[in-house]
Amino acid sequence: MIIQLNGKSADIPEEIVTLQDLLVWYGLKDRIVIAELNREIIDKENYQSTTLVNRDILELIHFVGGG
């Protein structure tokens, strides 16, 4: 499946079905992440039930600590 992720085309394996699957695949499951799917903010409690389809537009924002 091909989606637009943070402004770039990304080829996602077919076993990635939900937003939560994608976060696990990218190693972001235990981080604070804001997700916008097709211009709609998705609540964290809905990540597991939010399915991804070909040509979705996804923006992921995660926070990086530093000092």
From TrEMBL:
| Name the record gives this protein | Sulfur carrier protein ThiS
Q: Name one Pfam family in it.
A: ThiS
Which InterPro entries does this one have? Beta-grasp_dom_sf, Mopterin_synth/thiamin_S_b, Thi_S, ThiS/MoaD-like
Transmembrane segment boundaries: none
